[in-house]
Amino acid sequence: MKAKKSQAIVTPPQSITGGCLGARQSNVIAVCMMVLAALTGPLQAGTVYIPNGSFESQVAPPMYPYVTTLIDSWQKAPKPAWFNEAAFGLYWDQTAGLFQNTPPGYPNHIDNADGNQGLYLLVFPEVALFQDNNSIDWNHTTPTHAFDAQFEVGKSYQLTIGAIGGGGGMTNGVTLELSLYYRDAANNKVVVGSTVITNTSAIFSNMTHFIDFQVRVPAVKASDAWAGKNIGVQLLSTASLALMGGYWDLDNVRLTQTIEIPNGSFESPATDFVNTHVDSWQKTPKPDGYVEGGGFYWDQLAGIFVNQPPSDPTHIDNCDGKQALWVFAIPQVGLFQDYNSTDWANSSPLHAFNPQFVVGRSYDLTVGVIGGLGGMSNGLTLEISLYYRDGAGHMVTVAATSITNTPAAFSSASHLVDFGVHVPAVKAGDAWAGKNIGVQLLSTVRPDLAGGYWDVDNVRLSETREPVLQNMARTNGQFQFKLRSEPGLKFEILAATDVTLPSSNWTSLGTFTNVSGANFFNDATTNLNRRFYGARQLK
């Protein structure tokens, strides 16, 4: 029988979207795969998968000494020439390994361990573990390329690691370096950002609780040497020979990626009181109808101010940093930022904010706002939006949220309330696909309600990979596909022979956690004429 051609289902029922793949193998008429659009549970934007980041593999033995020196996915530093294994009474390979956390109730049980195991690093100079796209581990002599994240232009990165110092009689002053790196053309590791942890009894007063430490890399620029290079993570003992002894416990290595909005927290330029200059943001032009002789120049209608001390009744209790933005509730007062925007100090585009709307990704803008200030009337509106510029340079709104001042929405004049704008997964046919992202804050008050001002702070933009089924293949009568999503999300795989059935009538083929962000699923059922597949995100 001749197989049906591939076809797109344009308006499928039950909120299912996807396509149909024809296959002329055995008696299969067509094999179709779907993604259920009605997903449940929050998406975890910006999580970057680090293989074995929780050190759960290999499994340490449940008997003395409860440790293993075999660590999957991580490469150990080579033994330095100065390390005499006979003199120290231990092999270099034993200076780092995995241990099992003791059960609750034991005096040395770590109360916030992620999973059942952690990592120990003995305090000798140059003891280290690292991981990148070309690293190996104890079980591989060639790279597995499992960790393939890259430094993307316009994205900032934060590495977070749980650590406990002071173990085994460690001396105060011993240091451990956490870093993000890339490899240069000669394959040398080049550190992009690092944090040094110093052991003190004040920092590590609790030997059974991990403390988080971070390494942050600001937004990557196209001119940065690491732009587009593979990311590397390293944990390195930087103790001196004079301070050798003891061990670090480490766990839960996490890497997140966010879109950085330059001056999104309005900390620049710094001010002791107020400043009408706002770095990185362009102000909207003065409309013809605004008369500056009324007491305020147009440029004074938006600016930054310093948050007052906690003892002051006007103190904003959740201000991000030390400063925030004011926007007068007058029509068309606003600020915006995109790839071609300018600011008060630069008449030419800065090109500092350069992320684009990527096909298959969704976007969320979040802004902290306080309304009702300065005698503002109820019903006043402020619009926050994401936009792109068309071929003529005009700003075209992709999505917007209108914030309305009411006593219910703003019950406190000293606490910022978060509002969001959501752009669903970008499709290849969208006019904004591949275009630079723009962010705008705009007073949309009617002229008859003008008066008062808004406080605004902490403008954030996140990008999320939408779940998708891809790489369809049929081998030996069995069907396989890959599910791509943000790492760490849990899914239920569903199947049906009739796509018109409600999702509640589809058959569950099982659940799994998409740890890496790219997980293969194999359907062992064979010799079906037609089958549709779906993936439902679980909480």
Distance between the termini: 43 Å
Q: Give me the CATH superfamily of the largest domain.
A: Galactose-binding domain-like
Largest sheet: 7 strands, antiparallel
- Beta fraction: 35-45%
What level of helicity do the residues show? under 10%
What is the tally of beta strands?
Answer: 32
What is the top-level CATH class of the largest domain? Mainly Beta
The CATH architecture name of the largest domain reads: Sandwich
Number of structural domains: 3
Q: With helices defined by DSSP (H or I, 4 residues minimum), what is the helix count?
A: 1
CATH names the topology of the largest domain as Jelly Rolls
Globular, elongated, flat, extended or rod-shaped: what is the shape? Answer: globular
Mean pLDDT comes to: 88
Could you outline the blueprint of secondary structure elements for this entry?
Blueprint: E1 7-9, E2 16-22, E3 30-36, E4 47-48, E5 67-68, E6 75-76, H1 85-88, E7 96-100, E8 117-122, E9 128-131, E10 155-167, E11 175-183, E12 189-198, E13 211-217, E14 232-237, E15 247-259, E16 274-275, E17 282-283, E18 302-306, E19 323-328, E20 334-337, E21 361-373, E22 381-389, E23 395-404, E24 417-423, E25 438-443, E26 453-465, E27 468-475, E28 478-484, E29 489-496, E30 507-514, E31 518-523, E32 530-538
Parallel strand pairs: 3-32
Antiparallel strand pairs: 1-2, 2-3, 4-15, 5-7, 6-9, 7-8, 8-15, 9-14, 10-13, 10-15, 11-12, 11-14, 16-18, 17-20, 18-19, 19-26, 20-25, 21-24, 21-26, 22-23, 22-25, 27-28, 28-31, 29-30, 29-32
